[in-house]
Specification:
This protein is an alpha+beta fold and 751 residues long. Keywords: Endoplasmic reticulum, Glycoprotein, Golgi apparatus, Hydrolase, Lipid metabolism, Metal-binding, Secreted, Signal, Sphingolipid metabolism, Zinc.
Amino acid sequence: MMIAKQQSCPQLLPLIFITLGLTHATYGGYLIGIGSYDMTGPAADVNMMGYANIEQHSAGIHFRLRARAFIVAEGPQGVRFAFVNLDAGMASQLVTIKVLERLKSRYGNLYNEDNLAISGTHTHAGPGGYLQYYVYSITTAGFVPQSFDAIVTAVELSIVQAHENLKPGSVFINKGDVENAGISRSPSAYLVNPADERARYSTDVDTEMTLLKFINGESGKSIGAFSWFATHGTSMSKDNRLISGDNKGAAARFFEDWFTSTTKSSSKVIGNTSATLYSRLIQKAKEINATGGTSCGKTTSQSFKVRKNDNSRFVGAFCQSNVGDVTPNVLGAFCNDTGLPCDFNHSSCHGNNQLCLGRGPGYPDEILSTKIIGERQFQTAVDLFKYAKEELTGKVDYRHTYLNFTDIEVELDGNNVVRTCPAALGPGFAAGTTDGPGFPGFQQGDTEISEEWKRFRDSLKKPSKYQEDCQQPKPVLLDTGEMFKPYAWAPAILPIQILRLGKLVILSVPGEFTTMAGRRLREAVKETLVSNGNGEFDDDTHIVIAGLTNTYSQYIATFEEYKQQRYEASSTLYGPHTLSAYIQEFKKLAEAMAKGENMIKGPPPPDLSSVQQSYLIDPTGDSPPPGKKFGDVKQDITIPKRGSFQKGERPSATFWSANPRYDLLTEGTFAVVEMLQGERWVPAYDDDDFCLYFKWKVESGTFYGLATIEWEVPEAAVSGVYRLRHFGSSKKTKESPTEYFTGASSAFSVS
């Protein structure tokens, strides 16, 4: 989809205002509120959540992570629900528990486990250590309180912001296809689904995006948009070490910036491109040296933010859906050694899973791939946003229950009764995917385990015969559902939830449904609602899956896909009838909602906060070298021979710096590009911009920390004089107060 370029013609302004919802006040009978808060975790030393790559530790920031929330209520005391989208790998049961405790202290029972949904985008480039089950903490050196607290606080404060912003308003919905932003990474598994079922769909992935547009009823202005679309957050590879929201976080950044630039006049100086000006800029830059490190306050970096969180900014969120088998690496998977396509059934190269890797559209540049896939979602969202005309009206409602998924009795075809199993992982899980290969020696589709791996498995926990029989045809590599030392390895109690906003129904699922699994669930729920809803629901009812919501329990494949035991099936924890159990239990929720009946709560999940263990070592880089200060420049800007930088080039500077774990600089920034305007330095870009990179490391052979700031000069940058500024914090001892510092590079010009 194409977006018309913004022009300055006055006659186009009414059209722009109409498409953005700025012409007149409107009120659809709801109270609506939008919120957003910085949730960027530790930018050094912490293992990233997603790839389970023990060597992938954070070492800087590409752009910041956010929690984005919306609340819809029928009135001040009416039925309501809150939905929070996290730039995180997935939701966490412990995060949900602690957020609810904080909200209860603020609002009583207004927000509770029934009407709060917390969903992850599934970026694989965020700090881990925030989930409570042991299997998800092995590569993160246990529980990481700093990661956990950053997320809990961001969720809480995004909801607080949305709650405080509640005003009369309207919600509009639109749908459309996103072109070439995801393909199947397990096409051979999809093909084992029934032919007549597959014939009903034109593709082996869902290409549809569903978008909500929120309009303030008092001002008539758009205040936010939330969309759901399925594609993995794996544009950034398992070798990446920069914190990133991946393609969905990028789409959100592009969307929010687009809206702001379209509704407000630009504050940037318009550049003069004359040769005389270039010469003056170069000369001016030569006169300005690095500042040296100086002390500053805890919140000083917040005043240098380009996008200040003043509770009034437009919020654009890109949420996850049935993403299980969908990869953003749309060029396909190829063998690194030969360049040929990987084996179709096993995604390996002559039996080696390590050689088979998916390629994004910007291959071999993963950041370019992230940008392209983000732009494709963003562009579709803009188009849907502009032309969203269907207004949602009707009830706000919700249903929620907890289920012990290790032992659900499932009725198939009315008389055949089967059961789910305790959680277990198979060898296909260990093989990894084309987005990120796992352990050597495994392949997707493996149905045998070597004697060596069996001995290793049994040394941890030998699976019971019941478990082995129950999980068939999956061979049990890790019997996580029967492992409880040092504490539970996998969840047993899972939440399922339905949220309703008029004719929109959101299914909150605690895992990653494959494409066909998601289609079956949506279809079953819609059929149940229509047949029991006394006309409240019909064929125009919109059903959306919100993946990775409220907790995390890995994958959900179809019964047929489970037989092939590729990665997604091998990671379907509760056995071959997992999907059937979800469909059965969601139909019960849907029927209760349609008939206005309540649900039994079910057994609550445990709070394992008291048994968490943390092995992450304390930060290093506590002091600069003798004679240096934090914020001093170690390596200044290297000026090109022509005297100035051009678009696409990367000026960079390296500063003596302490470990960024000392303070996350929440709603602040570690890096700023400043532009000289008259005699004032004005922030132009910060570490929430896609073009700016903050990197941190310990100097080789020492314990001294170094921060490098790189700026890829964007096409939108205007000619002028710039410099790079760094913010950080340090502690002399564990007991000493945190000290804050800043420093700026020498100036340079951009032509």
